[in-house]
Design goal:
The complex is a heterodimer of chains A (489) and B (353). Chain A has 16 helices and 19 strands. Chain A has 489 residues and is α+β, with helices and mostly antiparallel strands. Chain A has 4 domains: 7-95, Uridine Diphospho-n-acetylenolpyruvylglucosamine Reductase, domain 2, CATH 3.30.43; 102-219, Uridine Diphospho-n-acetylenolpyruvylglucosamine Reductase, domain 3 (2-Layer Sandwich), CATH 3.30.465; 223-328, Alpha-Beta Plaits; 337-477, 2-Layer Sandwich (Alpha-Beta Plaits). Chain B has 11 helices and 17 strands. Chain B has helices at 6-19, 69-78, 96-102, 109-112, 115-118, 147-150, 184-195, 219-229, 237-245, 293-302, 325-338, and strands at residues 23-26, 41-44, 51-55, 60-64, 81-82, 119-125, 131-135, 160-167, 169-170, 174-181, 201-207, 210-217, 232-233, 257-262, 275-279, 284-289, 306-311. Chain B has an 8-stranded antiparallel beta sheet, with helices on both faces. The chains are: A alpha+beta (489), B alpha+beta (353). The interface between A and B is large, with 96 and 88 residues.
């Protein structure tokens, strides 16, 4: 089907679908809410939205689209930050929102079998009474759905110790573009054949549509404690991070903020951060009471030795939440002090932190654009926020160029253009910097093995060889994210 | 020893691809018993060796695939670090590439993760003779399809691994193993109960009327857990787990076919005649048995598991659990995407891959 898909073609298409009317949205007013996901810079009203209620309906929709050569974009909660669920003007937007049931909780094997539209946090809430939880905690966890988490291989602040989505799921049921239903993975610890579960996780809806997920559950740690340490330079803070890891300690969370981010957060939520610090570290340790007690005193000693000038231990859960509140509010806090900001998601080997941050700071002066840095220090995932004003002529272009250089720098030091937000639409062009032609061709060959006609989420995640031009970014205007109530960290 | 043989290996694969002649990829040859024998001229990867990057504070090691596993573990050990998946050593010659390609993990697997859970990135040569890099040397990386983790357990049928980056873990400060007399059925129940509690467990196994439990962590945490569990301390603890991991224990020396059953861990004991050794807190069950492959596979599949004929099998029997037809079709397409002429270790895993 080409760009001239008309209302008549749509009606003809709907007639052949065999779906009940309440599963079909085709009026402009119904379609508009689906025009973007969490990245509102990219918008496109979909041709048609389908809201199936059964796996069989998903199978017949995909089989029908396959036959009619109509492209399909799957959508979960629509909270993604890279435009992965951006609709097509001439394709179907397949919402999995009605797949919102927890199907089974297997306490003996510590597994939860859920539909893809179930919210991340709802899983942990459902099993909390049994002392269990689902570990990956993307910042949007109150709203984002597990199907989307699998499609994006979502992370969170506890990745260093507990891993990403790929490390915490056992099985997915996937409908292929031809309508075939596949079980990938198992309820055992591995399965026969290739590790398709790993391949499917993070494939951004290009290989199949996830219709069921079995996640692994972990026992809730007996206790968790958090330390707040202030430093006179980001380099010293960076060395302290390396010192903690080298000492054989694996924190549950290890987060860093620089001075601009600290001041913005402190002025916003009054977390008790030292206003004059060049950098702060938040170090959370969890485990048994005995383990955490030993480790906390080790980390306290270590941080003092490594130049922390202010060291505070949260004495109760309330204070712990307060320490975290500043970090979790960092994005909106920066949104308060600048008309617009632009968020990057590169990951770097931690040892290059000093070099990367000082280069960013130098460029920041050159471009005359302030940068606030928040950093998942434990796993090297850096979120520089470039502050700019889109209403000033030329400032957006300078910001884009600056952002592009930061991503190139991440690749140059051995890192990646995206640690957790995904490529989607946003970073499609930067993929050409990170991967060479042969590697991109290999990706396309893999795609073809699953979806020979390229109908699943076309144009996202993997660029065509013809398309290697400019860098993309996440735009936030007036501090407003599409989901302002969600934490973003 | 540091040697980069990427170019020569790439040329050999490119010419094998052009001539559609199969090649057999070999590291330290320590797992030649595993999988079906495959034809083709051998490409020896063991000389392609050397650690390329290791920074203990990054928790990442990057090395050429032919690097001896023992060398890597020794190096990590000097910095009090380890490979989380505790790869088995079936001889002293095992390589890093072989450990990743076989996807086999030791007793710590249910607690610290599988081989692929540790993989951060790989360099590989595909069946066309292209040298490619996927993943990277950082913990979080979601750019592109996760081809690197797909390589774990693919037995070299999708690409020749040239180098691998792995996440490593700090070694626990202290470790204790407990042993207690217990029937198999009760052991499986107790494993499930303990796994649901925040205990510092790092291995759980059952053999010959006894359960074995490994506790790892800080000294005080391990002591406390030990008191909590109230069991008796077992002597020479570390030797036990190494013998199980490397299959040096007497159980693995039997003549009968050795099966590896991977099942949901809490599955009650399976009614298949033979001798059992239960590892992975119930998830990996070794079975020495003369029962027919068909009946073992039927029983295992009925509880949601799969069975691998690990050693001593009848050569005509499928080594790996047969896949459902639609899934196998996808495997073949994927094989074709990476190795269009089917020259890399053909048939080692399944006929047609």
């Amino acid at each position: 089907m080409n760009e001239t898909a008309t209302v008549m073609e749509r009606e003809d298409f709907i007639a052949g679908l065999g779906l009940p009317p309440h599963c079909i949205l085709s009026e402009d007013s119904e379609l508009r809410p689906y025009e973007c996901d969490g990245l509102s810079a990219y918008q496109q009203v979909p041709w048609l939205v389908l809201l199936p209620e059964t796996v069989q309906q998903v199978q017949s929709i995909l089989g029908y689209c396959h036959q009619r050569k109509v492209a399909v974009v799957a959508r979960g909660a629509g909270t993604g930050l890279s435009g992965g669920a951006l609709p097509l003007a001439n394709g179907v937007l397949l919402s999995l929102a009605r797949f919102n049931s927890i199907l089974d909780i297997d306490l003996d094997n510590r597994l939860a079998r859920v539909q893809p539209g179930v919210r991340n946090l709802a899983i942990s809430q459902a099993v909390a009474q049994h002392g269990l939880y689902y570990a990956p905690d993307p910042s949007s966890q109150i709203a984002c759905s597990i199907g989307g988490n699998v499609a994006e291989n979502a992370g969170g602040v506890h990745c260093l110790k507990y891993g990403l989505t790929v490390h915490n799921i056992a099985q997915v049921k996937v409908v292929c573009m031809d309508g075939e239903l596949l079980n990938i993975g198992s309820h055992a610890l591995d399965s026969a054949g290739y590790d398709l579960l790993a391949l499917m996780t993070g494939s951004e809806g290009l290989l199949g549509v996830i219709v069921e997920v079995t996640v692994r559950l972990l026992p809730v740690p007996e206790t968790a404690q958090v330390l707040l340490a202030a430093f006179d330079s980001v380099e010293t803070a960076g060395h302290a991070v390396a010192g903690i890891i080298s000492a054989g300690i694996l924190p549950a969370g290890l987060e860093m903020m620089d001075s601009l981010a600290i001041r913005a957060a402190e002025d916003f939520v009054h977390a008790g951060y030292p206003h004059d610090a060049a950098a702060i570290l938040l170090c959370e340790l969890d485990g048994t009471q005995a383990e955490v007690e030993t480790r906390i005193s080790e980390v306290q000693e270590l941080l003092t030795d490594m130049g922390a000038r202010d060291l505070r231990l949260a004495h109760d859960d309330q204070e712990r939440q307060k320490f975290w509140a500043g970090r979790k509010a960092a994005f909106p806090a920066v949104g308060r002090i600048s008309p617009d900001y632009y968020c990057m998601d590169g990951t770097i080997p931690r040892k290059h932190l000093g070099k990367v941050l000082s280069t960013i700071s130098q460029w920041s002066s050159e471009y005359n654009l302030p940068v606030a840095n928040v950093f998942h220090a434990g796993d090297g995932n850096l979120h520089p926020l470039i502050l700019y004003d889109a209403n000033k002529p030329g400032e957006l272009e300078r910001t884009e160029e600056f952002g592009g250089r930061i991503l190139e720098l991440c690749i140059e030091v051995g890192g990646t253009i995206t640690g957790e937000h995904g490529v989607g639409m946003e970073k499609i062009n930067q993929m050409c910097v990170q991967f060479n032609e042969n590697e991109l061709q290999q990706f396309h060959a893999i795609k073809k093995a699953f979806d020979p006609h390229g109908l699943l989420n076309p144009g996202k995640a993997i660029p065509t060889l013809a398309r290697c031009a400019e860098f993309g970014r996440m735009h936030v205007h007036g501090g407003e994210l599409p989901f302002p109530e969600l934490e973003r960290f | 020893m540091q040697r980069d043989l990427t170019d020569s290996m790439r040329e050999r694969i490119a010419s094998a691809s052009a001539g559609k002649t199969p090649v057999s990829i070999c590291g330290g040859n320590s797992k030649n018993f595993y999988g079906h024998p495959c034809e083709g001229e051998t490409i020896d990867v063991s000389q392609h060796s050397g650690v390329l990057e290791y920074e203990p504070s990054e928790l990442v090691i990057h090395a050429r695939a032919g690097t001896a596993l023992a060398d890597i573990e020794n190096l990590l050990s000097q910095h009090r670090q380890m490979l989380a998946f505790e790869p088995p050593h079936f001889s002293s010659t095992g390589t890093l590439g072989g450990a990743v390609a076989s996807g086999l993990a030791g007793p710590g697997r249910p607690f610290a993760g599988s081989v692929r859970d540790s993989v951060l990135g790989v360099g590989l040569i595909n069946g066309r003779g292209d040298s490619l890099n996927f993943g990277g040397r950082v913990m979080k990386n979601v750019a592109g399809y996760d081809v690197s983790r797909l390589m774990a357990g693919a037995l070299g049928t999708l690409g020749l691994l040239t180098d691998v980056s792995l996440k490593v873990l700090p070694k626990p400060a202290s470790e204790y193993t407990l042993r207690q007399a217990c029937p198999q059925q009760d052991a499986i129940l107790r494993f499930a109960q303990w796994m649901a509690k925040p205990l510092p467990l790092s291995a759980a196994c059952w053999f010959d009327g006894h359960l074995y439990l490994r506790l790892s962590g800080t000294e005080t945490a391990v002591r406390q857990a030990q008191h909590q569990l109230g069991d008796t301390l077992m002597e020479q603890a570390s030797g036990w787990w190494t013998a199980i991991r490397d299959q040096q224990h007497g159980f693995f020396q039997r003549q009968a076919a050795l099966w590896r059953l991977s099942v949901p861990p809490a599955t009650p004991p399976l009614a298949i005649s033979g001798e059992w050794l239960i590892d992975w807190a119930g998830g990996q069950r070794w079975l020495s048995s003369d029962e027919s492959a068909a009946s073992i596979r039927r029983m295992t599949a009925s509880v949601g598991g799969h069975a691998t004929l690990f050693r001593n099998g009848d050569p005509s029997t499928d080594i790996f659990h047969p896949l459902p037809a639609p899934l196998f079709k996808l495997h073949r397409r994927l094989k074709q995407a990476l190795d269009p002429n089917g020259i890399l270790n053909p048939g080692r895993m399944y006929k047609g891959l």
